[in-house]
Amino acid sequence: MRGVTFQCLFYGSLIFGIWTALLYVYIHHNHVSNLEKKNQGPALIWSHEKKLQQQIPRDPKQIPRLRVRFEMPDKYETTEYKTFLRSGKDTNYSKPEYIAGFLKYGFNAILSKSLGSERDVPDTRNKMCLQKHYPANLPTASVVICFYNEEFNALFRTMSSVINLTPHYLLEEIVLVDDMSDFDDLKEKLDHRLEIFRGKIKLIRNKQREGLIRSRLIGAARASGDVLVFLDSHCEVNRVWLQPLLHTIAKDPRMVVCPLIDPIDHETLEYRPSPAVRGAFNWHLEFKWDNVFSYEMDGPEGPTRPIRSPAMAGGVFAINRHYFNEIGQYDRDMKLSGAENLELSLRIWVCGGQLFILPCSRVGLINKPRFAGRPGFMKSVTYNNLRLVHVWLDQYKAAPQILFLYYQVLKGCSCCDLETTSSFFYDNLV
Q: What pTM, to 2 d.p., does this model score?
């Protein structure tokens, strides 16, 4: 009897202890949750993008920053906005106007407005470039700038830098092509501000959306200079930028030349020097910058030596106007923009030309993310890559990566003629 009583007391105590422990855990959890709710501000709603790691480094410099995002209205919850949040930049997301400007233009529009229509940028040329001298009787240049919904001040800085840093006797004109922009400040306000450049700027407004490729062709058709210089609408040219380009083309009209492109940070708008690089592309037809080895810059010209390049970035280059027409210009059947730089690069090399990057010519370019302000960009890139493969790659079309590109097109490119593409795919590749 005594043993039974002892067992009952033992098990009863054990059960009581377990329930007491569970009750303590429950009360502690509710207490912590209530503290967290009290600590949250009522005005702003914040959410973690990533969970912080439990292990905190001993070195304070290695402590990870808490990345948060401001919960925006539904109109900002787009694919582009989510891509922006994944960009890994430390940004003040609590300013809706900053995010709206970024999604609208692809860079810090608030800072761009504060910089105004012109600024001085650092001379990033090598010191040996300062010793170079160029003849006065160089060809004239028509600078073609196409824009679509560009930020007003960035566009104006592009034009102002060209006007201020280019000898007037070399600058035939600036051909400005508006590809049917929607923004109000690119209409009457732009017309009014262009009055200060009277006589140097031709403004063409497309009556329908043409895309970058056809807009450049429209601008080239209206140009009258010996050399066509194509610029993006968010550039800032540097000192003595045009003379090296014109001098090289004057020696050989089949030379197509690009300046060394200095990156302008899309958040800080800081102008940074670029190392010596050349343009290239991989089997997925993605443009890449390739480093130039130091031994390639040996010789009397040193770091000023022209860099032979397989491909151009496409945003900034100079070409003899007659040679541009001779090789057939751009592929008119490409859509909007994308891959036109690779197509033109292949066209130049196949048609007896040469493509070089000139380190003594520097142009800054805002490095916009690919998605920014470019609806339908990926579809046009896919379509244009398909045309590039079909026209230029000949026996290399059967490379595995190219086959994968075709598979992607057939699977998801709604802008393509799938029946024609499928027929071509099976007739030529399978």
A: 0.73
